[in-house]
Amino acid sequence: MHTIIEPFKIKSVEPIHFTTKEQRINILREAFYNPFLIKARDVIIDLLTDSGTSAMSSEQWAGIMRGDESYAGSDSFFRFEETVSSITHMKYIIPTHQGRASEKILFSITGGKGKYFISNTLFDTTRANIEFAGAEGIDLLCDEGKQPSLIAPFKGNINLIALEKCIQEKGAENIPLVIITVTNNSGGGQPVSMSNIKAASEICKKYNVPFFIDACRFAENCYFIKQREKGFENKSIFEIAQELFSYADGCTMSAKKDAFANIGGFLAMNDETLAMKCRNLLIITEGFPTYGGLAGRDLEAIAIGLKEVMEEDYLKYRIRSIEYIGDKLDAVGVPYIKPTGGHAVYLDAKAFLPHIPSTEYPGQALCGELFLEGGVRGVEIGTVMFGKYDADGKTIPAPMELVRLAIPRRVYTQSHIDYVAEVIIEVFKRREKIKGYKIIYETPLLRHFTARFEQL
Ligand SMILES: *Cc1c(COP(=O)(O)O)cnc(C)c1O
User: Fold this and answer.
1) Is the CB of 386 within 6 Å of ligand 1?
2) CA 274 to chain CA centroid, nearest Å
3) For residue range 91-137, what is the model confidence (pLDDT) as tens digits?
């Protein structure tokens, strides 16, 4: 078999600014050891996120020029609506400026004190919006998903037994909705099977609880279903996506992920009363319902991107390019979440740096070292992001200490990826000398974005 090549040619390029190790020592110190505080021009390979960092296609750029900027009822909105509707079959489609805006609207209307939102794993902004609205988020990931080195096909599945038990315990009337994240971003980019979605949806129906999908990476999830779940091998990604959404009453989406757009998102649902409430709040916070915080040209880019992301040549390359990093890490025994997920490699910092306790943030320390070694920027998904304090101010650590290296869509080539693997392996060789961090500044919600650290 031939090498799976990038299914695109490069039309426009952006220079990378190189730095020396000496320069990076200063850059990291000045950024208080927080990758979010490093200037983008000081990063060589930027794997902070796959969000909004995609390379748009020539068709999308053509769409940008075609964008209809009419305040109300623009052509671009109708093209956007038609595309989203063809995939999701949802009745009400509401554009927003990004995923968290959809979450803010949805959870401030449905949430509040005494309410519980159940998920396989809530993404950080999702959880923050739920908590900000006064409600509580509950993650019920399947057992396989909690074991980083275990190889299983659908480690993003929700624990169905725990889901039903939780609905009974908390009372269906206190659960405004259940939301399943596909793929499970915070849990390793692992996919959710169609049978799990279907079963979760049936449980929700039984108790009359609406079932939503956090659809940010729906196409990557559908590709895994096609590869790994019986009965889907001959279906198109479009057909699989249609089936996936058919089990849901609504969804939230960040178009910065599986729509190749630099900005955008949407909220979709079948319930008219809820949709009207969402639209009213949208008008106050985002904009008129036919643009929702976006320019007409953005709606155009999203509509085109949503079709491109379901192309199989693209998804095959996409999923393989992530797995390729995993193969290189396996060769020297670098610990990471197995198998590799859809959009990122998640290094297991707990196993990588066993001498650093959670209270000294091993994931954050590993992020710092990857930057020092080769200017590679990743993000901690561990105690910095999800840790809490108990009543005595003692740290309650996150269940896993991970470093996510998210691969922007259609941006880096194989040699960039080879370089990233070399950097990880160099750091791995000198892992025993790496030290932990302490926090010197933090905010109560989403502290990872702005926290400042000191090396111990
Ligand atoms: C990125 C993301 C969001 C939030 O979307 P934004 O566009 O960044 O606001 C929500 N859920 C998941 C799973 C995500 O990956």
Assistant:
1) no
2) 25
3) 999 999 999 999 999 999 999 999 999 999 999 899 999 999 999 99
Distance CA(151)–CA(132), nearest Å, equals: 36
Q: Choose the residue to mutate in 139, 257, 263 for probing ligand 1, maximizing ligand atoms within 8 Å of C-beta.
A: 257
The response to whether residue 265 sits with its C-beta less than 6 Å from ligand 1 reads: yes
Answer whether 0.70 is exceeded by the pTM. Answer: yes
**pLDDT, tens digit (0-9, with 9 covering 90-100), for 385-422:** 989 899 998 999 998 899 999 999 999 999 999 999 99
Domain range 21-50+312-455, its CATH number among 3.40.50.300, 3.90.1150.10, 3.30.2130.10, 3.90.1640.10: 3.90.1150.10
Domain locations along the chain: 21-50+312-455, 58-308
What burial letters (b/e) apply to 327-361, b meaning 16+ CB within 10 Å?
ebbeeeebbbbbbbbbbbbbbbbbebbeebebebb
Mutate to test the pocket of ligand 1, among 36, 49, 50, 51 (most ligand atoms within 8 A of CB): 51
Task: Give the tokens for residue 195.
Answer: 């049978």
Distance CA 428, CA 424 (A): 6
CATH of 58-308, one of 3.40.640.10, 3.40.630.30, 3.30.200.100, 3.40.50.300: 3.40.640.10
